[in-house]
Amino acid sequence: MVIGIDIGSTTTKVAAVNSGKKGIIMVRTKAFDAITSATGAFGKLLVENNLNLANIEKINITGVGASRIPGNLFGIATTRIDEMVAIGTGGKYLAKKDRIIISNIGTGTAIIQVDGSAITHLGGTGVGGGTITGLARQLLNISDFDTIMNYAAKGNINNIDLQIGDIAEGNIGFLNREYTASNFGKMLDTATREDIAAGILNLTYQVIGMVSVFAARSKNNDTVVVTGNGSNNILGQKILASISSMYNIQFEFPANAEFATAIGAAQS
Do the Cβ atoms of 67 and 80 come closer than 8 Å? Predict the structure, then answer.
């Protein structure tokens, strides 16, 4: 059995891949210390699934916290895997496609191209989950992600964003009246906390969506596979879907996409 551990800035995910058997075991934990997070997640995997250390062939670690893990974990051969390679490998496995663009949404967002066996880091943006929590902390005095999402689900984006219809009589090119002309460009005095939360989410996912579209078009690809913690955000998925319909770029959200990097580490 090979263990892949993705050590993020706040969340660590573990995937166990057993050669010769179908299925991948996955767990996650939260901690701000890399060693505590990695060992805690690994221990949780063992205990919850009745696994034995003797059955672990090797451990592959990746993510921003991987460099803080010295030597081997628990005396088991431990290899550091390039995070972009892990994202590409895991995204390819989940998408079941050989030619895709991957948008991995974590604290920020990384854009990866997979073309057969070649994995290329195209770039990305610092806009991601960290943007949502940071702006919400400053503007709303809220830092709990679930609370932010509950607020955003009730908000009215029309009170925050300037739309095409606010500045033009009709559509502009292929942009319809409901599309955003300027994030936070309207910001009414009557805007509620819920409206602001919706604006933060819209800003974040529209930036991610457009960066992904540009990347896909530059590589003559029509599919973007969304992975990382931000992939299973229902409100974010709806925002990306609206971008998809406008630009004919298909956003896909495979099951267990938040574990893509850990899965890719285990398979690298």
Answer: yes
CA angle 73, 78, 84 (to 5 degrees): 120
pLDDT band at 20 (very low <50, low <70, confident <90, very high): low
- Which of 53, 133, 40, 102 shows the shortest CA–CA distance to 263? 102
Confidence of residue 241 (pLDDT cuts 50, 70, 90): very high
Is CATH 3.30.420.40 correct for 2-80? yes
Q: CA-based angle 17:20:24, to the nearest 5?
A: 25
* Cα of 156 vs its chain's centroid, Å: 25
For residues 232 and 226, give the distance between their C-alpha atoms in angstroms, rounded to a whole number: 9
Sign of CA pseudo-dihedral 140, 143, 147, 148: positive
Where exactly does CATH 3.30.420.40 map onto the chain?
A: 2-80, 95-156+192-257
**Which CATH class for the 95-156+192-257 domain?**
alpha beta
